[in-house]
């Protein structure tokens, strides 16, 4: 199942996400987690990768909801400048990391997800790998079985 919601880091920063948007996402995720009681998350992208790098568990490539909550509290206690200078965040990451953390926490809470896996491969990398495998397998099949 999938659904898109008008909730994003820039919209949050600009106060353009309404309570109805959050409620719709919560309703969707709660309904989904009723159908699938054990939910595992896979996070890709710059924000979750940075959170994982700063607060995650390198042994199993994961970050817990507890760690993300602690990250939110720590990041929120810093000014924008401190997030850049003291934590070494890039300027374009330092402003969006806090609302991104809010989104991750909401998703994890509403699905009762305790841990999110953060592979070193990105979503687009994974899609390219999958397409390559599909094309490669098809070509091998054509070479050996289409005679």
Q: Report the total helices.
A: 8
Shape summary = globular
* Mean of pLDDT: 91
Q: What order do the SSEs take from the amino end to the carboxyl end, as H and E? A: HHEHEHHHHEH
Largest sheet: 3 strands, mixed
Number of strands: 3
Helix proportion range: 55-70%
What distance separates the N and C termini?
40 Å
Class computed from helices, strands and strand pairing: mainly alpha
Q: Strand portion, in percent?
A: 5-15%
> Which strand order does the major sheet show?
1-3-2
Low-confidence stretches: none
Query: What radius of gyration results from the CA coordinates?
Result: 19 Å
Attribute tags:
three-stranded mixed beta sheet, mainly alpha
Structure description:
The protein is mainly α and 147 residues long. It has eight helices and three strands. It has a three-stranded mixed sheet. Helix 4 (65-77) packs antiparallel against helix 7 (97-111). The termini are far apart. The model has no long low-confidence stretch (mean pLDDT 91).
What's the quick description here?
The chain is built from eight helices and three strands; from the N terminus they run H-H-E-H-E-H-H-H-H-E-H.
Q: How does the SSE layout of this entry go?
A:
Blueprint: H1 9-13, H2 19-35, E1 41-42, H3 46-55, E2 62-64, H4 65-77, H5 80-85, H6 91-94, H7 97-111, E3 115-117, H8 123-145
Parallel strand pairs: 1-3
Antiparallel strand pairs: 2-3
